[in-house]
Amino acid sequence: MQKTTDEFLEMQPVVMKRLQGAYAKDRLAHAYLFEGPAGSGKKEITHFFVKLLLCESPLENVPCETCRSCQLYNSGNHTNVLFIEPDGQNIKIDQIRELIFKLNKTGLNTGRKIYVIEQADRMNNSSANALLKFLEEPEFNVTAILLTERLNALMSTIRSRCQLVSFRPLSRSKLMEKLMADGMTESMAATVSMLTQSEEEAIALSQDEQFAQARKTVLKLVEVADSNVHEALLMLQAEWLPLFKEKEDAERGLDMLLFAYRDIASVKAGLETARTYPDMEETWKQMALRRSFTVLSKQLQAVLQAKQQLPRNMNRTLLMEQLMLNLQEG
């Protein structure tokens, strides 16, 4: 469901006031760089801003939604707006060349032309340099919007030619409130809100049977590893490894494991922070009583070390077996 302007203002008040203020004062940059974490509203606010720039009858710096331009944009048929996203792993030079060719065509509607480059950090050197030349000599009435989650991965020369707009991470507590208001249980809302800041992705995770099974498996492994390392090693083979086969799944599994030990440490310290697994509170209390802070610190470090080793294409079975042994030694 499309968010309202008030929801955008609540989500990113600084960003919205800055963009609407620039529009109101007619002080628009020729190129913007929207940077921030996934789920922070970059793409949604990009659509709002593009529509505002094109709208024929804006009201108090908000697109009217009824004019021909707004309707064309909402239907995906506005010829003055061009979107680019990675073709495979990268944004290729041919994509940038085609973009520039289209922007230079005279057949577009009169008025402002806008192009949006999603995941702009995935331009390769050739495509980045081709775009840089275009940015260095901006066309009149052409606005660029680049989106990225990895600001430092973009060429510094491109960054310097764009007006930087930083999106802050969303409040976890507010996300949990929204999810629970829509009927999600507190325990599931607490878990998914640690894994994503996107309301849509959080809802999708909560409805995914495989994710529900992954959550159960993580919690079971924490309990088993606490009592019997041999049983934990057997569980790895029978339950963990088949469920976390893909690299992305394995990364998420280790994150969820880390959050479990972080919960236990929070309980041990008597902190009133929101748990990732509030339904495990009584279990965490029992486990916290049997551990010192030194042991918990070593266990947290063991999971962090496994997370760091995972991208190095290490044998995943050996990695997890070593982690179980390290958790026991901790």
Oligomer: single chain
Per DSSP, the total helix count is 16
Order of helices and strands: HHEHHEHEHEHEHHHHHHHHH
Number of strands: 5
- Specify the structural class: alpha/beta
What does this structure look like?
- By secondary structure, the chain is an alpha/beta fold.
- The chain has 16 helices and 5 strands.
- The protein has a 5-stranded parallel sheet, sandwiched between helices.
Topology:
Layout: H1 5-11, H2 13-24, E1 31-35, H3 42-54, H4 68-74, E2 81-84, H5 93-104, E3 113-117, H6 125-136, E4 142-148, H7 156-160, E5 163-166, H8 172-181, H9 186-195, H10 199-206, H11 209-227, H12 229-243, H13 247-269, H14 281-289, H15 293-309, H16 316-329
Parallel strand pairs: 1-4, 1-5, 2-3, 3-4
Helix pairs in contact: 1-2, 2-3, 5-6, 8-9, 9-10, 11-12, 11-13, 12-16, 13-14, 13-15, 15-16
Features:
alpha/beta; 5-stranded parallel beta sheet; 16 helices; 330 residues; elongated; 58% helix
Short structural description:
This protein is α/β, with parallel strands linked by helices and 330 residues long. The chain has 16 helices and five strands. A five-stranded parallel β-sheet has the order 2-3-4-1-5, sandwiched between helices.
